[in-house]
Design goal:
Layout: E1 2-4, E2 7-9, H1 10-13, E3 17-27, E4 31-36, E5 42-46, E6 56-58, H2 61-70, E7 76-81, E8 83-85, E9 90-92, E10 96-98, H3 111-122, H4 143-151, H5 156-166, H6 176-190, H7 196-208, H8 215-225, H9 231-241, H10 245-256, H11 262-284
Parallel strand pairs: 1-9, 2-10, 5-6
Antiparallel strand pairs: 2-6, 3-4, 3-7, 4-5, 7-8, 8-9
Length: about 280
């Protein structure tokens, strides 16, 4: 069977794959993950396009159902050029592209928009993976939240301790601590506060040490270090800088729908980071 993808991450489309062996890593109702033989790269094949992610390959529902019925976890496949070859089917990595890469921005968040964002978050009672409502993020002293504060510090020793605490900690396919780190990195990028030493340490830790967290979570952590995020995150970053109150609430809710608690955990790390640096900016002024 020959299948053509209808939507592909442009970072995949830009690559010209030499012949490489992959395997079906994990399988779910509406998606499955594939991983390369080096265990350093992961991609998701799915039918659901409402929350597109880095290295995503999206199919028509009928095509996905047929392909999913043919495969099992640990099945081998080959990717060469722009084609993915399974035992019985071939998937062409064509179709329209979407963006996951976020360029660094220099515009500051408008104070009125920040006040609106804070009001929106304070209304959200959905529980995070560390078992506190998201609306407590501005005042919480939970160890997860305190670790985000340490990531915002200037001391590399505190940042390393915080990463040691957060990576792989919490429930889910992407543990809560990892989602919070991604939120932290997305916030730093948004306000032009990237910390290269912190990023280098995290990248080295993730690539040099196995079993720190799940393969899926490792993939998204490494993507965030390369400034690649879910489109819902890119939309939220854009809404905060576009001075649009109408888009802001919608963007927050779309992030919140990610996974069981992943969206809430991301927003916890993202929001606490923005709060910390906002406080620092006010002290300077």
């Amino acid at each position: 069977m020959l299948i053509e993808a209808c939507c592909v991450d442009q970072e995949i489309s830009k690559r010209s794959f030499s012949k490489s062996r992959w395997r079906v890593h994990s399988k779910f109702g509406r998606s499955f993950n594939i991983q390369d033989e080096t265990c350093q790269h992961l991609a998701v094949v799915a039918a659901e396009q409402s929350a597109v992610v880095p290295n995503g390959i999206y199919l028509r529902a009928s095509d996905f159902e047929q392909l999913s019925a043919e495969i099992a976890v640990d099945d081998c496949l080959i990717i060469q050029n722009q084609a993915m070859k399974f035992a019985k089917s071939q998937l062409l990595l064509t179709g329209k592209n979407y963006q996951t890469f976020q360029k660094q921005r220099t515009k500051r968040i408008n104070e009125t928009i920040w006040a609106e964002y804070e009001c929106c978050i304070r209304r959200i009672t959905k529980e995070t993976g560390y078992q506190e409502g998201l609306n407590t993020i501005f005042s919480s002293g939970n160890p997860f939240v305190s670790a985000i504060d340490d990531l915002c510090s200037e001391q590399l020793s505190l940042q390393r301790q915080a990463l040691h605490f957060l990576i792989g900690r919490g429930p889910g396919l992407t543990p809560s601590g990892d989602d919070m780190i991604i939120g932290h990195l997305a916030a730093r990028l948004l306000i032009n506060r990237n910390n290269q030493k912190l990023q280098n340490f995290l990248r080295t830790k993730m690539t040099a040490v196995n079993d720190l967290t799940t393969d899926v979570s490792k993939h998204y952590l490494l993507c965030s270090l390369n400034q690649r995020f879910n489109q819902s995150v890119l939309n939220l970053q854009g809404a905060l800088l576009d001075d649009s109150k109408e888009q802001l609430e919608e963007a927050i809710q779309k992030v919140l729908k990610t996974g069981h608690t992943s969206g809430a955990d991301f927003l916890a790390g993202f929001t606490r980071t923005l709060k910390c640096f906002n406080a620092v900016e006010k002290e300077k002024n």
